[in-house]
Amino acid sequence: MTIIKELLRLLAVIFGVITLSFCLQLFTGTDPAEMIVRKQNIFATEAQIQAVREELKLDAPFQVRYLDYLGGGVRGDLGTAIMNRRPVAENIREVLPVTTMLILLSMLWVVLFSIVVAAAAVLRKDRAFDNVTRIICIIGICVPSFWLGLILLAVFAVRIPIFQVIADGSLKSFILPSIAMAFPIICISIRVLRASVLNELNSDYVTYARARGFTNGQIIYGEVLKNALPPAITLFAQYCAALFGTSALVESVFSIRGLGIYLMESCESMDVYGISGAILVCAVLFVLFNIAADLLSSAVCPAYGRKRI
């Protein structure tokens, strides 16, 4: 039943984003036909612009254009980009795998460090390790990813040439940008997971486990961590999905052409088809990641699934 609800929510979001994307094309004040013609001939006549407008069916009634756009979105046809006159879907298919690889590596760092450091901070609550971790996390949350990327690039690609300045598409070239993207999220995840674990430690089953003689480490790693994961999983999924649309700054620092750079270039070129297509993909990914987070949380912690029913 939960899966059916999530799928219905996904369909509703897709419908809403497609509608908003269509409205974006209408109310930006940009005439796609004029943009296309002016890129080829700045002295184009109104007759030439009107011919392109008729070719693209931009002079059709509102409801006709909306139904055509809605049908195209369902089929995966996101229109033709103004920048290079190629299908938007084809442009996105070229850049999406690069951003996906970068984000997956970033999320790997988040998973590895968040769980280990948060659990260690709970075991050493209010001691030196916990206090130092708290300070680092507060600073890390405030550090912009692109600034951290510049520092990493200057240190590990210029001063100590372990990595290349310009990414060559290899896995090694994604290490520094993925760390730059992951570090603020790691800091947030550690604080959230630590608070969730401490909240679980006040539960009755923890008191019972201590009465039976289990150590704090056995309790935390055996049961508490599993029950404390759902809030961190939800946060993890939301940040993971958001990175698809906000990765432009880090990608530009490391010369990586991904979805973020494509969205930024579309904005600079006033390419309404490219902008709406990229936004639609980011919105769908956001909902899919949230659905996956709910399902994973229910699998890891059955009590979470029962609360949502």
TrEMBL record:
<keyword id="KW-0813">Transport</keyword>
<dbReference type="InterPro" id="IPR000515">
    <property type="entry name" value="MetI-like"/>
</dbReference>
<feature type="transmembrane region" description="Helical">
    <location>
        <begin position="135"/>
        <end position="162"/>
    </location>
</feature>
<feature type="transmembrane region" description="Helical">
    <location>
        <begin position="101"/>
        <end position="123"/>
    </location>
</feature>
<keyword id="KW-0812">Transmembrane</keyword>
<dbReference type="GO" id="GO:0055085">
    <property type="term" value="P:transmembrane transport"/>
</dbReference>
<feature type="domain" description="ABC transmembrane type-1">
    <location>
        <begin position="96"/>
        <end position="297"/>
    </location>
</feature>
<feature type="transmembrane region" description="Helical">
    <location>
        <begin position="174"/>
        <end position="193"/>
    </location>
</feature>
<comment type="similarity">
    <text>Belongs to the binding-protein-dependent transport system permease family.</text>
</comment>
<feature type="transmembrane region" description="Helical">
    <location>
        <begin position="272"/>
        <end position="293"/>
    </location>
</feature>
<feature type="transmembrane region" description="Helical">
    <location>
        <begin position="7"/>
        <end position="27"/>
    </location>
</feature>
<dbReference type="GO" id="GO:0005886">
    <property type="term" value="C:plasma membrane"/>
</dbReference>
<protein>
    <recommendedName>
        <fullName>ABC transmembrane type-1 domain-containing protein</fullName>
    </recommendedName>
</protein>
<keyword id="KW-0472">Membrane</keyword>
<dbReference type="Pfam" id="PF00528">
    <property type="entry name" value="BPD_transp_1"/>
</dbReference>
<keyword id="KW-1133">Transmembrane helix</keyword>
<keyword id="KW-1003">Cell membrane</keyword>
<dbReference type="InterPro" id="IPR035906">
    <property type="entry name" value="MetI-like_sf"/>
</dbReference>
